[in-house]
């Protein structure tokens, strides 16, 4: 066997080579992505890479980086190539069984936290995916019971894994359920449901094709799942409890109307950092 010839001799050179390869393949965020990949090859946190720029780059590192760059240039999302992604202060294991956690959902959580004035003893995360919202709730309210629901058993297995990874497994109950059931059980229901209109799914960036369709496809107008969930969430909440949902561009007002129809009061619509009316909350 012949040794692989390393183009790069150090971590910093490997970053430069990887960035160039991504640039040639038409990617834009090339420095960020190549630092993430090189750091992971070396078992370092990306933030620690700058201090280790002179670290020797071996042929084993080079082989791994090439495998990952081949995946990435085939448009596998960076999160799946790395196998992990951050949600708030939790690093989560992610696979194509779950949606990659998005920064908007971090905003959803912050909004829900700041609107909960009373004691929180029971929280549901509907469509938990990798478990991000459930973990965040368990971390924020250590004495609360958290129920993480998902239609996908593979997603639930991964969410449970992530809870174990963060020592929060004992606090979270994992339940396979299409949406949510129960009567007057929760103080807070969080839901990042599929909300992309079916017709829009194919026109989006190629990376999206790697993510589970069941986590994205919201039917004809994108709100099919939200429409079913809102009345169920109303029943599952205790009087005074709140529902917080994330939706897409143009869906804020229609979702606000759905909450009002279901009997929610104090229904509010909040923009995300990009100015899209994305978060809808209401009180039972
Ligand atoms: N925010 C995601 C996107 O637009 C959609 C997530 C979802 O449907 N819940 O790619």
Outline the structure in words:
It contains ten helices and nine strands. The chain folds into two domains: 11-74; 88-283, Vaccinia Virus protein VP39 (Rossmann fold). The N and C termini lie far apart (68 Å). It has helices at residues 11-24, 30-41, 59-73, 78-82, 103-115, 132-140, 153-165, 198-201, 224-236, 252-261, and strands spanning 84-87, 90-93, 122-126, 145-150, 172-176, 186-191, 237-246, 265-271, 277-283. It is of the alpha/beta class. The strands form two sheets. Strands 5-4-3-6-7-9-8 form a seven-stranded mixed β-sheet, sandwiched between helices. The chain has a two-stranded antiparallel ribbon with strand order 1-2. It binds glutamine (GLN). Glutamine (GLN) binds at residues 102, 192-196, 216.
């Amino acid at each position: 066997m012949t040794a692989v010839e390393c183009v790069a001799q150090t971590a910093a050179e490997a970053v430069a080579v990887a960035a160039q390869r991504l640039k040639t393949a038409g990617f834009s965020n090339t420095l960020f992505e190549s630092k993430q990949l090189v750091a992971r090859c070396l078992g370092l946190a990306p933030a620690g890479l700058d201090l280790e720029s002179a670290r020797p780059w071996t042929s084993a590192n080079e082989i791994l980086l090439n495998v990952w760059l081949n995946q990435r240039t085939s448009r596998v999302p960076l999160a799946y190539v790395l196998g992990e992604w951050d949600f708030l202060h939790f690093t989560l294991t992610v696979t194509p069984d779950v949606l990659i956690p998005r920064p908007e959902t971090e905003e959803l959580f912050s909004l829900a936290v700041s609107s909960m004035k009373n004691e929180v003893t029971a929280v549901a995360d509907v469509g938990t995916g990798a478990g991000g919202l459930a973990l965040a709730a368990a971390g924020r309210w250590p004495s609360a019971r958290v129920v993480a629901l998902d239609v996908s058993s593979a997603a639930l297995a991964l969410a449970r894994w992530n809870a174990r990874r963060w020592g929060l497994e004992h606090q979270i109950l994992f339940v396979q359920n299409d949406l949510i059931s129960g009567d007057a059980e929760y103080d807070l229901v969080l839901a990042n449901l599929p909300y992309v209109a079916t017709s829009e799914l194919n026109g989006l960036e190629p990376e999206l094709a790697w993510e589970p369709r069941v986590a994205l496809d919201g039917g004809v107008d994108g709100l099919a799942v939200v429409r079913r969930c809102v009345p169920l969430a109303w029943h599952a909440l205790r009087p005074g409890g709140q529902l917080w949902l994330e939706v897409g561009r143009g869906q804020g007002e229609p979702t606000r109307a759905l909450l009002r129809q279901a009997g929610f009061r104090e229904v509010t619509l909040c923009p995300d950092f990009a100015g899209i009316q994305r978060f809808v909350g209401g009180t039972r």
